[in-house]
Amino acid sequence: MSMSPKREKVDGDIYAVDIPTMTNLSDAEYRYFLKKDGLFFFDPNNILMSSIAKYPISTNLEQLDILIEELELKRKTIKPKHK
Fold first, then answer.
1. Residue 50 and residue 17 share a domain
2. Do 63 and 82 share a domain, yes or no?
3. How many structural domains comprise the chain?
4. Considering only CA atoms, which of 25, 35, 30, 31 is closest in space to residue 1?
5. Pairwise CA distance, residues 1 & 18, whole Å
6. HSE on the CB side for 70, CA within 13 Å?
7. Residue-number span of the structural domain to which 24 is assigned
């Protein structure tokens, strides 16, 4: 598989990766996806934005810390990948 995962056009210039494609990504491919295509980006005002929906995720460091705390809680419930 190439480093850039197969993406499907959702609407206009919005692309998403489907569940089977994401499930089959290697760790390196997923890391590349997050860095290159990504789920997030910082806008010119340093606000963390959703790459797909273009809405704000966090507007300051405190909100980002809260988001990370929530992700860490979710990490405890997600299943490990099949090997």
1. no
2. yes
3. 2
4. 25
5. 15
6. 8
7. 1-38
